[in-house]
């Protein structure tokens, strides 16, 4: 039973890490896609 619980904990940890990774990648992608939009008016000027 102890071995099984350890496996479940490891699985939960992997799932948590994967979730964090996905959130990080999505955040970076959002920021990278937002930078050109924010920089465009500055680059083109008034």
Question: What does this protein look like?
Answer:
The structure is a single chain. The chain is mostly helical and 46 residues long. The chain has one domain. The chain has one helix and no strands. It starts with a helix and ends with a helix.
Element layout with pairings:
Blueprint: H1 2-44
Sum up the structure in keywords.
46 residues, mainly alpha, 1 helix
Structure at a glance:
The chain is mostly helical. The protein has one helix at residues 2-44. It has one domain (1-39).
H and E order:
H
Number of strands: 0
Kindly give the count of domains: 1
Query: Any idea what the radius of gyration is?
Result: 20 Å
- Specify the overall morphology: rod-shaped
Structural class: mainly alpha
Average predicted confidence as pLDDT: 87
- Count of separate DSSP helical elements: 1
Query: Span between N and C termini?
Result: 68 Å
Strand content: under 5%
Largest sheet: none
